[in-house]
Amino acid sequence: MKSVSTYVKKTTRWYTRYQNVISPVSFLLGFVWDAFSSKRIDAMDQNYLLMGYLLIAGILLLLLHAVKAEKIKTGFWVTYQKLLPLGFHFCLGNLYSNHVYFYFQSAAGFKSLVFIAGLMVLLLANEFYKERIHQFYLQFVMFFLAAFSFFIFFVPLFTRELGYRSFLIGGCISLAFTMMLISAVALIARARYRKLLIKSAGLMIVIYGVMNIFYFARWIPPVPLALRHVGIYHTMKKKDQRYELQYEKAEAWEFWRTSGDVYHWQPGDTVICFAAIFAPTEIHTTIHYQWEQYLEDRNAWVMQDHQSHTLQGGRDAGYRGYSRKGVISPGAWRVEITTEEGLLMGSLNFRVEQVTKEFERKLETIEW
Fold first, then answer.
1. pTM, rounded to two decimals
2. Domain at 234, CATH number
């Protein structure tokens, strides 16, 4: 019977030989798997697994530097030290792919998409530029950002509170966790590496400061909230536990539409903006609807109305709320849906055209 070490050696050699093919294929399959298998963002078994990946990544990084510094001279980790960076990147890959999926669900607007693009770059770099990420700085940057993007949505699940305080706590935990790892590596590293580690610690503080700037600039999506649906409707009626919503039938080729982008307004109409917003169980917050009209003489969007309602989390399809506007003038309109802190959850553009009572509107009905 062949020993376990023989199988490990063969597997390592096989991976080294075919890694140029394995990396992109495993990346694609892993990302697709996460997209279909990921649960709600407040599924604690999944989140504990992600925390496990983070802890294992930190331990593997510590072992990697212990072997490099010759603090561990014999044994399994010395013989199979090539497995350490592979395991580190595997854990980071699982973290980043889940984070991209979660943050993409909450993203709205160009600013949030830039943050998502940054996470995607980190995910791709982790998959395809492993050799370059062996540098001190990049290893800790990748680890810190993985921890940061995890804890800023994980902490509100415990505090049951959204806003800057939970964001600050999550960021501080991430920074402290990374600083502890850097300190542990500094204790075992050779003297010539310690200056690099001190610089790495300084870099983490700078990145932490930048992330706080991003928060106030509204570049970070409002996780763990996610907009499941938003639309403009003519009528709304509650039937049993469902809402019946009517909108103007779109063109045949616009088969995906469940809301009209043109509202033919008749005197007496009420324009309804209906939204379904997911929030974790026991989360209570306020959602704001800002009605804006584009005024050509000012060349700008001007707020015409502001309404809000409270939100209670827990419903998988999202908490259903709405905002109504009875008096509305023709032109280009948009409704921006924001959190209490002003983070954008979604923006819906539509056009209002005033018509007479004789104008026939073809209305479709959906249930939500």
1. 0.84
2. 2.60.40.1930
